Amino acid sequence: MSPTLKPAAVYRRVGLNRIEDLLDLEEASFPSDRSSRRNLRNLLRSPSAYCAAAYLRGELVGGIVVLFRSNAKVARIYSIAVSENARGMGIGQGMLRRAEREARRRGCDRLRLEARMGNTPAIRLYEKLGFEAVRILPGYYEDGAHGTVYLKQLDSPR
Ligand SMILES: CC(C)(COP(=O)(O)OP(=O)(O)OC[C@H]1O[C@@H](n2cnc3c(N)ncnc32)[C@H](O)[C@@H]1OP(=O)(O)O)[C@@H](O)C(=O)NCCC(=O)NCCS
User: Fold this and answer.
1) pLDDT band at 111 (very low <50, low <70, confident <90, very high)
2) Does ligand 1 lie within 6 Å of residue 128's CB atom?
3) What is the rounded CA–CA span in Å between residue 17 and residue 71?
4) How many distinct structural domains can be found in the chain?
5) For residue 73, what is the domain's CATH number?
6) Buried (b) or exposed (e) across 54-75, using 16+ Cβ within 10 A?
7) What separation in Å is there between the alpha carbon of 125 and the centre of ligand 1?
8) Which candidate among 2, 4, 53, 106 keeps its CA 20 to 30 Å from the CA of 16?
């Protein structure tokens, strides 16, 4: 598809009324380590979590959750996913840009996240936006897969 023909996504904060869509997205996107309904409900209600979604023609096709701690300068991307049929359209990047904006707005100067080793689409996305691998997390995931911590300084030019 030519880039000019890609439909534009709309990004908005998301609330409890879209919890079913977000659970479906989690189930389709993650082999393990998914959020339970209860956990997601708590996140959607929490003032220390920023939860946003991406929509294409009204359909929820992406979600991101960012966690904040009081007096901490580092925010954490807890979860990011895009529906399979909407990948490669810049939506993951668009949600991360919004997360960065929100983190700056709340006074943070760094953004961190964990990625499963071998998750090439995610790792390429993070590296494109200026995240750097800072630490290995052996056996971090439920199935024993290793993780990597990525960090971005929010004054980075990318
Ligand atoms: C990772 C994920 C969120 C990326 O979302 P996306 O909307 O498809 O990504 P974007 O279209 O914004 O891609 C932005 C950049 O990421 C990289 N990228 C994305 N998908 C890629 C792929 N399949 N292969 C290689 N690089 C890829 C590219 O650098 C791309 O930039 P480009 O289009 O200029 O080449 C999506 O693949 C996904 O939901 N995966 C399943 C859930 C998951 O693994 N989440 C991350 C947990 S750590």
Assistant:
1) very high
2) yes
3) 30
4) 1
5) 3.40.630.30
6) bbbeeebbbbbbbbbeeeeebb
7) 5
8) 106
